[in-house]
Amino acid sequence: MPHIEIDGQSIEVAAGTTIMEAAESLGIYIPFFCYHPKLSVAANCRMCLVDVEKAPKPLPACATPVADGMKIATASRKAKMAQQGVLEFLLINHPLDCPICDQGGECPLQDITMGFANPHSHYQEEKRVVEDKDIGPLITTEMTRCIQCTRCVRFGQEIGGIKELGATGRGEHMAIGTYVAKAVQSELSGNMIDLCPVGALTSKPFRYKARSWELKHTPGVCPHCSTGCNTDVQSLGKEVLRVLPRHNEAVNEQWICDKGRYAYTGLNAPDRVTKPLLRQKDGEWAEVSWAEALEATLAGLDKMLARHGADKLAGLISAQSSNEELFLFQGLLRGLGSPHLDHRLRQQDFRADAAMPRYPALSMTLEELEREPLIVLCHAFTRHQQPLTNHRLHKAVLNGGKVVSIDSIHQDFNFPVTQLVAEAGADGHLYQQLAEHFAHLHEAPQRDPLAVLAQELAAADNPLILIGSALLHHPQAADLLAQVESIAELSGGRIGWLAEEANSAGAWLSGCVPHRGPGGHPVDAAGLPADAYWEAGMQGFILFGVEPGVDSMRGAEAVQRLANAEFVLSISHFAQEARQYADVILPMAAFAEGAGSYVNNEGRLQSFRAAVKLPGEARPGWKILRVLGDSLKLPDFQYNELSEVSAAWQHAVGDYGMDIPPFQAFPPLHATQALPAGPLLRLGDWPIYQGDPLVRRAAPLHNPLRARMHPQQAHLSGIQGEVVEVSTAAGKVTLALELDTHIPLGCIWVPLGYSETAVLGAAYTPCSVVMAALPERQPESLRAS
Questions:
Q1: Going from the N-terminus, what domains does the chain have, and what CATH number goes with each?
Q2: What are the C-alpha distances in Å from 348 to residues 356, 490, 552, 678, 680?
Q3: pTM surpassing 0.90?
């Protein structure tokens, strides 16, 4: 190991260590702009020049590996003059606009200039100006400030996986921009703002809102996907103004996706509920006091239970709720005598419930994913469903691993993935064929991709099979799960789950499923699953943080059933959908307004606390449930503090472990029913920015609604226009059409999560498509790209 000396301090470091890394380990600061420990070394800013003994000129610390006996001076006259000269060149064309720059107060260029610059400049000429680029609704550009460090370019290529930004021109004419005039599409694009060492890239929603030193910082946990990214919620007064990643190498490293970064903009949506709402006899809504709202709730529940019994009462709760809220919710429903409670609004097939694990566990750490040699994704588009888990898979590929995807459509991954796509409606057949190939492993090598995958799985040492949320959305989910288990047994592989929402694991552990109580213990009498509520004649509903009209597979049917129910209580952040069917709407704390805990995909328990005060008369969700349970004279609801609820949750759940069996014993499965036949098969899932009530209201993240169809299928169907009418047995809708070769023949992709498409019913159903006339004024969903 080389033994070196930096500024008189001796240290022994590993071979290949750079001067920058060695200096950091000694706590010696060397200024830099282009260097970043998570990116490749570019060494193009030259700010980190240091004086190395016997070297004829200063060397860049970020790109120079140490050698045994090397003596380095970071603050000698030679090093200081080199750093001052570089900084003077960088400032030649940089505008003096710090007072109006959003980067002010947290700007490395500003700080380094104050600490290292020569106070006198030799430059007298005019500064050059660079035209700003419009790269979308999330990032504001001031390209005259750019110092061409290329951090944003390298991030896009190496972390984001998409080469969206690049450099054009040379010397003074060099400029950073998109290759063609278009918006940045990466779901990780906001991280380029954090990486930019100047004010060239800043947050468009945060622009001119506040100065960095005015903001209060509160540690939080992202409430969207199951990765559980750690966040820094930054607020001023009662308003959340910015959400940034909080460094946690074991979970999200130092990144966060755009959904986690910008969804806070939906907190102040026009339909935000800040006072209790009560439906009057004439159908109008009135703001009332909490006492009146609770009185109406108790009266409505008592009347409904007296007339129909607890078996006609059902509860639906979001898996973005905290462990404490989930625990109290199941206690409330079961305390009232109802076994019907669930968080799985998007699932259609529940025949495999008895075989489900204690909770959907990855059964390994996120860091361990990077070292997996072979990973098979089963209906899992991780790039949009778990962006930072997807980043770990990307690193696995960079480390020499292989990722294979089995899905209904060809997905747009941001790293090399071998994709096996089922023919229209033949997902089960694809898994069955893969399992059958294990009986012919010793035959001559075949070109069939499934045969190749079977041979690779058999040859691999303990391969990893990951089950995605889209598999559970399939109408034949139980059969697909049984086939996945069979493939794992045949290959000697492991199975992990990619849970859908921030606290899906906590929802299972807390007992928010109809067949299990807290800790995964079986209940005496199992209730109905969520998708069965709409046909079971339920007369009472308690909804917590959900919008069944867009959160469930059969949205229009759900809204109709809720509207016909005798009593519906909605405990929610937003009122737009609930006004259609609820009798009482109680306002509760949203993201950054309440405290609690989540269990992420690994099984990691993470706590968060409120960053801002509650708006209006909104209350924390756990307090609303506590008061309801106490008012209904239910046992075990006498809690005064959140810590007491947390302790009760932990006692009920027990030690759940992080590495658990992926399945329990499968029940007998009846013969698989073929999917209904029709002219075309309607496919669909929830897009990245339509997955929950908060992100749906985040205006900067909105994407236009479009149907997608293979160009050849459009030709076969006689579709020549840009607008189509899609019809199913449940309803019809007119949508803009995008031709996309990723969609299999015989199918049309219509996304879920939109109120417009809820009328079509569930995915994987037959539909017909015809051309439609383009209206004179096109709504957002009909605008062509």
A1: 3-91 (3.10.20.740), 130-266 (3.30.70.20), 277-346+503-653 (3.40.50.740), 377-487 (no CATH), 680-782 (2.40.40.20)
A2: 15, 28, 9, 20, 20
A3: yes
